Amino acid sequence: xxxxxxxxxxxxxxxxxxxxxxxxxxxxxxxxxxxxxxxxxxxxxxxxxxxxxxxxxxxxxxxxxxxxxxxxxxxxxxxxxxxxxxxxxxxxxxxxxxxxxxxxxxxxxxxxxxxxxxxxxxxxxxxxxxxxxxxxxxxxxxxxxxxxxxxxxxxxxxxxxxxxxxxxxxxxxxxxxxxxxxxxxxxxxxxxxxxxxxxxxxxxxxxxxxxxxxxxxxxxxxxxxxxxxxxxxxxxxxxxxxxxxxxxxxxxxxxxxxxxxxxxxxxxxxxxxxxxxxxxxxxxxxxxxxxxxxxxxxxxxxxxxxxxxxxxxxxxxxxxxxxxxxxxxxxxxxxxxxxxxxxxxxxxxxxxxxxxxxxxxxxxxxxxxxxxxxxxxxxxxxxxxxxxxxxxxxxxxxxxxxxxxxxxxxxxxxxxxxxxxxxxxxxxxxxxxxxxxxxxxxxxxxxxxxxxxxxxxxxxxxxxxxxxxx
Length: 470
Ligand code: JFZ
Prior knowledge:
Number of domains: 2
CATH topology of the largest domain: TIM Barrel
Largest sheet: 8 strands, parallel
Bound molecules: 4-nitrophenyl 6-deoxy-alpha-L-galactopyranoside
Radius of gyration: 25 Å
Low-confidence stretches: 1-17
CATH architecture of the largest domain: Alpha-Beta Barrel
Structural class: alpha/beta
Order of helices and strands: HHEEEHHEHEHEHHEEEHEHEEEEEEEEH
Shape: globular
Strand content: 15-25%
CATH superfamily of the largest domain: Glycosidases
CATH class of the largest domain: Alpha Beta
Strand order of the largest sheet: 7-6-5-4-1-10-9-8
Oligomer: single chain
């Protein structure tokens, strides 16, 4: 008889096969997860907010009345947009209605534990008054440092701040996407120094920063800079102890990104889940990870005219729960407009997620993967602090019975709704390790709900045998 290899094994084998032992100077510095306090805090956030704010919020996806189909923050790269015209937009940047505390309170009310803020996107415009360029907020009619205002406001309401920084810089003279000759290389050396200066500047100006979220590191030019980027990372980490940097920063000696030539992750968490989610725990290879998600299909910066599918609150909550159930964080993006206002659609979504979080956040904060067989009704999560186990139900079966399969020697002892009433639910044992939890027959719900479950672990046969001998 032919034995079928379970998919889990097959995938693990695949990964192990990929693991080699090539000697690298700039490969992964560590195998497995970081175990320090700062990283533990990161791991336990569950929910975060992303903010894409820059001068691209002025055109807001339109140029001379023409609709831009791409992501609004990319409009400068559109053939309809002359670079010169785009590069003077900042002279009109004057977000009179911007109030950092209003944003921070919305985020707090939504239940986010950390925020990632764009300090500089691909267009090169700096939202802080950088002393290394004139192309910054300091030279807009607004003048004031919005990064400082945001860092202070978010910290004040207890939200940790991470800074987004794009390596791609379409404005800097030395920036190159590839290095074709000595002239390019000379120019790029200046750009590298500039990049380093800006990063050091950011961490010195905003020392409460918990981490850096890098972007635009896919250029061939950057992929050749393993030694430089590695030492830059080391320097940045001395400025902020515990600093968290994802896998989208460093190339290895051979130009590999995220994972080095031996298949080991470079960075503190995997930063590749962009508008997509892992399907199963095997997909995350035991690493920490975050998923960054847009509300429309693909808009990060402010686009005045969202088209296509707009994700619903239940859809977003499901993505968050799925992320947590697979040991990741879920980060939802917001694109404020040029007046400094978070659009009504986003405000509504934030407040509805917040409403759900106030009832159910127990199943999100400090929670992660539970090694029980996934069922069709939704997702399990478990608290890393209390070991309490949760079922987050998205699909209500017509039978109103929820299947639970427990691992060996684990039996289900009780289950109750995680709302104010804590109503206890009937458990029916079908056979060993297989149960139905009976929901009230007339139960209906248009939002996901949480059930807390308690289990008990029986002793192993050998433990029982040892005991019997005494
Ligand atoms: C990048 C940016 O180009 C975009 O504007 C936005 O800031 C987003 C958060 O990051 O876009 C990416 C980057 C990486 C992938 C996809 C889009 N990726 O790895 O699939």
